[in-house]
Amino acid sequence: MMKILIVDDEPLARQRLQDLLQEVGDVEVCAEASNGREALEACESLQPDVVLMDIRMPVMDGLEAARHLSQCEQPPAVIFVTAYDEHALAAFEAHAAGYLVKPIRASRLQEALQHLPRLNRAQLDSVGQQASAATERSHLCVRQGGRLQLVPVQEILYFLAEQKYVTACLRQGEVLLEDSLKALEQEFESSFVRIHRNALIARSQLAGLDKRKDEQVVVLLRDTERQLDVSRRHVPGLRSLLRRGQQG
Amino acid sequence: MSEVKQQDQHHSGDSFLPDFCNVRTVFLLVISAELFAFLLVLSHGPPFHWDHLGTLSLMVQLITLSSALLLCSTRQWLEDRPPIQAGLLSYIMVLLVTLLVSILVSMLDNWMRTGSVIFAAPLAVTGRDMTISAIVSAALLRLLYLQHQQRLHIETNAEARVQALLARMHPHFLFNSLNSITALLRKQPDRAEHALVDLSDLLRVSLSDSGATRSLQQEIQLAQHYLDIEALRLGERLQVQWDWKEGVDMDMPLPALSLQPLLENAVYHGIEGLQEGGLIAVQGMLRGSDLVLSVENPVPPASAPAQHRGNQMAIANIRERLQLVYGAGASLDMQLGDSSCRIELVIPQAVAAK
Description:
The complex is a heterodimer. By secondary structure, chain A is α/β, with parallel strands linked by helices. Chain A is built from eight helices and 15 strands.
């Protein structure tokens, strides 16, 4: 029997899918989730075969969830369910992936389940990336001790590259990432700023600049005592950011 | 930042000068130039001098092709400039080419006749060539400019019409509502029926003439129907608080669909993006004799830039409609904070009551 996960933030929309799936038969709804983040957690613990996923959802949207799912060892088949989303439709057309439009027709759902669009990882990833190219991820997906951990980007104070790895430092604790600092800088350009060859800080964390005794400029952060070194060439940029912050 | 980029694109994509590197353009130019040469010889009129046509064609074609070559090779550079500047610069280029060719042809003519390479053309000849070239290329540039203006006009018109349609009914809302109703049909047919009637009312007003006016009371009722439909989807997440201050005249006429789009905006860009939902506070009060409607709602912490843009578009649309009806007396302001968005709509009562 096919294990299905339903992901939609609207209870009625989930209800509708439940009803339709009952008609289709030979499937088991293993869980419901109301946003992308919950969906990832449910996938981790329940290993569904298929995810029926809405696109516009709070906390984490469906496209981003798909992007994270694509990193799994055995990603489930994802069928997007959307009311109307031009950007998403454009992405699907480019990749001929599975999607259904609301209100869903029972026969279309059955068809989609019969011909599962088992996208390979690269396709899934690029669908997610294309459609959310303008938007950065809201969460970083990390595996620690085999467990999936989702880190909200808003809670990250800074990224630090040390030897082989990049660490994301949170208010409490830190996590190791596989992304490169350069990729992170590009993706989160609107919320993070480069201060050194090995560090990016959250723009909202920037509290001030200081000089140590050895003349090294350091940055002061709002939510941590730790001071990070600033390269000389990034000092002017940070100064003007600070000035603008004060004016705003 | 993005605005600057857009402007750049605007310039390079929308230059009114045709692509002089294009074979078709060059071919048309050659034909037109030849016809022009023919015309010039014809005007010297009868008898028709074939040898005259020969020299003149040579000269006109030389000017045309050299100008095209010059404009083609400076294309990128010209496109980076504002249209007026690009036009002037290309005009100057054509005149310079004419001057050079005119001198060159005079020298050639002189050499063939006397064997001397010294420039000995009378100033009058060069002056005549320059004047003709100045008039013809100015006329041509003007024609190209007008053609371009007309194309732009058609494009903006079409876009405006699409925008107006989008402002009336968001497909996102429509299909989501239909989905909720489908879900309700089996188990709660009475709620489904109610929702269908609400949706019909909304559709009826959306499809009506955009210049129609309705009373404030009717507008509030319509907004309520809209919220009832959204409540199906959002349930507890959608909370609304109404606050009508004393003195607000419920019979006051408003342009149709003044209030509902503000609420739709609050739902789409605010409540929908919040896992826990939130409260939309609607307030109506008098300021002097003006009616002030305000809608305040929480927004998700890190709204994507794309959302802001959509937001601004819907707002701009309402503002435009208000301006058509009331002129400068009406206003619509949006304050977008980190966690909330407030929209204030001011409608002059005196004018509205006319």
